[in-house]
Amino acid sequence: MLIDAFRTLFWREFDSIDAGAQYFHVRPITVRRWLDGSTVPNPMAEKLLIIKARGYLPNDWRWAGFRVDEGNAWLVTPEGHKFNPKDLDAFPLWRGEYMELLRRHGHIKGPIKTQPPREHPKPFRGGRRCEAAPWIPIRDKLRK
Question: What is the pTM of this model?
């Protein structure tokens, strides 16, 4: 990657040198050297920057325009439709149901309302742990 391309992509993804340094796990002076061209950027940092800019999607023309919203964990299509992981997991079932409805009743006339993606619980809930299940030793289960 050329230094100009790295610099452009860096400033598109990060608001400050400190944010980029924290993301790459390097010191801010290292990022400054990469950006001013005095040091060649680390190849793994280049790849990581490309992955962040692409949103973890393959570098393929069929995925052009798609992106991943990291804050909400949504896949966003070029038209702006948003899918959360549960929606994507249920998509084959929805498609099967839709095809069966088409077979039985035909196409729907008129515009179709779309719904925003459902909220799903975050994997980490602000440092709070879920309550552990009570531990009952097997010897206590066997006694009556």
Answer: 0.45
